Amino acid sequence: MILAGDIGGTKTVVGLFEKTVEGLCHLREATFASKNYQSLEEILAEFLADESALELKAACFGVAGPVIDGRSKTTNLPWELDEKTLSKASGAPRFKLLNDLEAAAYGMLYLKADEFCVLNRGAEPHRHGNIAVIAAGTGLGEALLIWDGADHHPVASEGGHSDFAPRDEREIGLFNYLRDKHDSHVSYERVLSGPGIHNIYNYLRQSTGTPEPQWLQEKLRIGDPSAVISECGLADSDAICVQTLKLFASIYGAEAGNLALKCLAAGGVLVGGGIAPKLLPALEKGDFMKGFTAKGRYAGLMASMPVRVALNPRAPIIGAAHYALQL
Fold it and tell me: Shortest CA distance to 324 belongs to which of 22, 138, 107?
């Protein structure tokens, strides 16, 4: 029996799996609003309350934040996680914490072909090599799948917190706007995330001087701003919302390309997270790939790399479950 989970700033998903001759069998799963709990131990106690006879082989959880020496202080939650403490709390003799994108990257290796959407249709298919993984959601996650000649091995990073590099005058304006707002340091996560969509929108609304329609003001007041902006941008019902999604897609592609260059992602790029599947029409219009391939002398190399969006949101927990089998 395997316990696996995906810990995010918004929600935490916990699942129970059983190893069978056919592979991992998914038994049950539950989703918890992360901010409603003081700790992961509290969630585990609730999830395992009716499993008194359960004998766990191992447990593995992806967590949104760096994991060092078996410990993690979550980036968007006031939780402190420790593998030894969690092993006792869960009853699993072996408990492993992974960075959430490390788990997601591993899980994407087990997804089926129809669980991806291809963005770069001119790429060279079925090429072995390193794979870059990038995922915008509540924050921005980045990870690598390093190819050793036979298998891929997930490697965590906190590249989403690296410095945002503007490419033209409009993006320089966005950088200056965010620098004033966030005490000088502007990371890619300030742009490529749910809150980042709202940041881009506010900058464009301010810099263009375009008045905000009354109907949109009301929607933004009562709903999640990033979701409202995305909805209106996809529906082409407000010009600034449309521009927001275009700029978001372009910068998303540019940073995906940066990550691909840093690991020489001959095996391609996988785009995960909760935002990409929802904004797929905007990503497919071309701004993402233009940003991705605009790398000067390496434009040809970038154009040859496969780029796919993972459509299955369960990739992190799938990856954590398969990783637990190795413990």
Answer: 107
